[in-house]
């Protein structure tokens, strides 16, 4: 739609330097898409597609496979040295935009990068043609940019079709089979290409019996999904079960050091690549929440990952091995076990043992995608391993796409976190640096590969708005853009999304969307679990408040509230020792309640309700204040929407209205249950005398 502003332009696609024979199946498919996209643009917005030699306003040119980074390219990120380093360091794709004499030329070394360059022009609209002359090179910060679908082929009796999915059914499967009509999957791929995502894992990490067979019996059907994504340069990955050699292959063991097991995985991989030449690789959740893994054979996770890595290596494949490993059958009475410690304890000692084509995929926090938790210390502990950051675009713990909760600001904080330096240290190494191969002491192979990249659980389903809540689309958009440049400002990203989604949005609509969404993650935090303590959600589906819901369960997610205080003591001095997993300065910053940031206080410390925060109020008064404020902010969101709803299509207006009403109902429920719980526990009244039940 942004092209409307550039209507009437002449567009040319110059592919004269392309030797189709040099390209793989993926690139050849994308070549056709480029032509289609240009034709589509002129059909919608006017103009003409002309011969490349006819001096058009916009030329896209494929330069051939060598020389991805023209020497004269300047950075558009204001960080030219860093950008050049990045381009030199890893096999990153990217494109160059040259604007001279009113003519714009986009060049790239691969069709997929050229497509990304085209979408960049689309995003800029008229501005792509009217800015100052110059050369800009854009390359994605993360070489691997992936969305994981937790989709089941069958509808699972407890989890439904899409585990933690809040946007209807799967776009890939229906009624126990791959959908006959996969046109929506191709549209999805187009959406992904427009935000720069180029890998998708197509089934749940909890691999049930039916889904395990995607790897073998269903390969022709999986190949159809790959074919539907391919025209937009998106390649597929599969989640596989570590027990597959037994459950699918009939072997007596899945021991990763067993020769027959190794051979089984090699054969399985050979068959996959025969069916899908541009297949990406495997995703594995092992020894976690009931999934099988190498522990059953006394092997560790490097042994487990490497057997799959060996099988996929001849095909250039990857293994995304998840670090989400912990004991989910914990005894709640045992205060010495700390789930937060688990990933580090299992994985940090294995640094240097993983094959070069293994990516260890690490959840952003040590627990489980909570609205607020500390950054995982694993990200600072494995310089000789390709580490990927794992985020949830799907809003499991952030309102399940019934609540408006824009996650861009949060991801910006996570990506910008400086594990080895204080929060104020400008230019220090960040989490984004680590996962793009620029962490301190990174091994040469990690640097060469550009690290392990960024992955996230998708929020897309067969819902008519794709994401349930129309505003949840902004999260998908921001995620893709941040994989290209983790330093992008979340507010500016939201602005881009508004421009592309509501073309010609009035200033009032734009303001209202910012008013509703900019601070919505912090608003959500205010009316839910306080000060980083986490959970307090209803067990099972994880929606709505249940303060003690997980308190006496085996899941290892406790808050330990009693009449005197609340929080988890994770200090070295008196607690679980988890703070010791961080490098300085954080191991000390978090160790003392005097220096621990307020928002994480209860994640690291058990304190009395009367403990005074840096903000100057007591813990219990903070709970009351934030829960009242959170509801007031949702009330303001509802009012704000009513002022502008008439400006958007009725179906969008109505869906947002319905969701905001539910968000308000839910926020009130959270406020009243949390406030009442703490009033009853502490006996301390609200300083402002507001109603607590
Ligand atoms: C969470 C989520 C599960 C999921 C798991 C995972 O625990 O609730 O549904 O399987 O994360 O990341 O593997």
TrEMBL record:
It holds the Pfam family Glyco_hydro_67C. Residues 467-690 form the Glycosyl hydrolase family 67 C-terminal domain. It comes from the Bacteria. Coiled coil: none annotated. Residues 137-466 form the Glycosyl hydrolase family 67 catalytic domain. GO terms for cellular component: extracellular region. InterPro entries: A-glucoronidase_C_sf, GH, Glyco_hydro_67_C, Glyco_hydro_67_cat. Residues 69-89 are annotated as: Disordered. GO terms for biological process: xylan catabolic process. GO terms for molecular function: alpha-glucuronidase activity; xylan alpha-1,2-glucuronosidase activity. This is Alpha-glucuronidase.
């Amino acid at each position: 739609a942004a092209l409307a502003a550039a209507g009437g332009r002449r567009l040319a696609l110059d592919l004269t330097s392309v030797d189709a024979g040099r390209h793989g199946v993926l690139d050849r498919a994308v070549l056709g898409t480029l032509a289609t996209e240009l034709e589509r643009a002129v059909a919608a917005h006017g103009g003409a597609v002309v011969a490349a030699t006819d001096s058009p306003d916009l030329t896209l040119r494929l330069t051939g496979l060598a020389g991805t980074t023209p020497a004269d390219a300047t950075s558009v990120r204001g960080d030219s040295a860093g950008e050049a380093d990045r381009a030199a360091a890893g096999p990153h794709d990217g494109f160059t935009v040259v604007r001279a004499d009113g003519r714009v030329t986009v060049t790239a070394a691969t069709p997929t990068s050229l497509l990304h360059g085209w979408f960049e022009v689309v995003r800029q609209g008229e501005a792509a043609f009217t800015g100052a002359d110059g050369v800009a090179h854009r390359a994605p910060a993360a070489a691997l940019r992936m969305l994981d679908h937790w989709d089941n082929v069958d509808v699972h009796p407890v989890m439904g079709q899409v585990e933690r999915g809040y946007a209807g059914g799967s776009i890939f499967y229906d009624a126990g089979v791959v959908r006959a009509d996969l046109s929506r999957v191709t549209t999805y791929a187009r959406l992904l290409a427009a935000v720069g995502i180029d890998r998708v894992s197509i089934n749940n990490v909890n691999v049930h019996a039916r889904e395990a067979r995607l790897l073998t019996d269903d390969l022709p059907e999986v190949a159809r999904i790959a074919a539907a994504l391919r025209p937009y340069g998106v390649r597929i990955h599969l989640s596989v079960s570590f027990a597959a050699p037994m459950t699918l292959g009939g072997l007596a063991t899945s021991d990763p050091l067993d020769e027959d097991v190794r051979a089984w995985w090699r054969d399985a991989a050979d068959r996959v690549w025969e069916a899908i030449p541009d297949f990406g690789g495997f995703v594995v959740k092992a020894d976690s929440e009931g999934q099988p893994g190498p522990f059953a054979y006394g092997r560790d996770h490097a042994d487990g990952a490497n057997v799959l890595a060996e099988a996929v290596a001849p095909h250039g494949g990857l293994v995304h091995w998840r670090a989400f490993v912990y004991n989910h059958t914990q005894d709640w009475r045992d205060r010495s076990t700390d789930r937060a410690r688990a990933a580090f304890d299992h994985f940090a000692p294995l640094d240097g043992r993983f094959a070069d084509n293994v990516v260890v995929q690490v959840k952003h926090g040590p627990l489980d995608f909570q609205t607020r938790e500390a950054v995982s210390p694993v990200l600072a502990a494995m310089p000789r391993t390709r580490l990927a950051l794992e985020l949830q675009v799907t809003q499991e713990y952030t309102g399940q796409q019934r609540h408006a909760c824009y996650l861009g600001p949060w991801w910006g904080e996570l990506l910008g976190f400086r594990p080895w330096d204080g929060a104020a240290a400008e230019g220090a190494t960040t989490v984004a640096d680590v996962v793009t191969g620029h962490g301190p002491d990174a091994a040469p192979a990690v640097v060469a590969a550009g690290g392990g990249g960024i992955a996230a659980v998708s929020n897309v389903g067969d819902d008519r708005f794709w994401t349930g809540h129309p505003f949840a689309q902004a999260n998908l958009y921001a995620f893709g853009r941040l994989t290209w440049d983790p330093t992008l400002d979340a507010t500016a990203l939201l602005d881009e999304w508004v421009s592309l989604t509501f073309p010609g949005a009035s200033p009032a609509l734009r303001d209202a969307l910012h008013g509703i969404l900019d601070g919505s993650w912090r608003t959500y935090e205010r009316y839910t679990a306080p000060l980083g303590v986490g959970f307090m959600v209803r067990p099972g589906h994880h929606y709505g408040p249940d303060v003690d819901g997980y308190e006496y369960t085996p899941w290892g997610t406790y808050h330990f509230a009693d009449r005197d205080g609340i929080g988890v003591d994770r200090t070295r001095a008196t607690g679980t020792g988890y703070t010791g997993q961080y490098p300085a300065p954080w191991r000390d910053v978090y160790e003392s309640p005097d220096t621990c940031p307020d928002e994480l206080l209860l994640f690291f410390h058990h304190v009395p309700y009367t403990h005074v925060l840096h903000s100057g109020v007591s813990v219990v008064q903070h709970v009351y204040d934030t829960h009242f404020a959170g509801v007031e902010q949702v009330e303001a969101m509802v009012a704000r929407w009513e002022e502008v709803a008439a400006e958007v299509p009725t179906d969008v207006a109505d869906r947002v209205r319905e969701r905001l009403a539910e968000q308000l109902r839910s926020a009130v429920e959270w406020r009243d249950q949390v406030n009442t719980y703490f009033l009853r526990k502490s006996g301390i009244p609200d300083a402002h005398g507001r109603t607590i039940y």
